[in-house]
Design goal:
By secondary structure, this protein is of the alpha/beta class. About 45% of the residues lie in helices and about 25% in strands. It holds the Pfam family SpoIIAA-like.
Length: about 120
């Protein structure tokens, strides 16, 4: 399930992901991101992941294609999760993201407000 977070505004877009995200849900939130890219040129994203959050194969592939096509329009990505696996993945991915001028950082659920503050700074 993909749910837009109330703190989303302008170029700052946050979603809460729970369970396995299917292709329909993925396409819906990517369309919203496309609108924001067209309106603001660059966007910053906050992904709040529940413990069981993940992508189905088709949805994951759509996500990857969108990121590669739009990486020049992404300023920051905040990943909010209590999972040590996600924390490690973000640390590794942040090294590659830096190469294309994307700042990426991991936060725990307790640090959600800090994540929004960082995203908007």
């Amino acid at each position: 399930m993909v749910e837009e977070l109330a703190q989303s505004e302008g170029k700052y877009f946050g979603v809460k992901l729970s369970g396995t995200v299917g292709i329909g849900e993925e396409q819906k939130w990517l369309k919203e991101l496309d609108k924001r890219v067209m309106q603001y040129d660059n966007v910053s994203l906050l992904l709040q992941l529940d413990d069981g959050a993940g992508w189905g194969l088709k949805a994951g592939w759509q996500d990857i294609k969108w990121v590669f096509h739009n990486m020049k329009h992404i300023d920051k990505v905040a990943v909010v999760s209590d999972s040590k696996v996600w924390e490690w993945l973000v640390k590794v991915d942040a090294l590659f993201a830096k190469v294309v001028n994307i700042d990426e950082s991991h936060f725990t659920h307790e640090e959600l407000e800090q994540a929004w503050t960082w995203l908007k700074s």
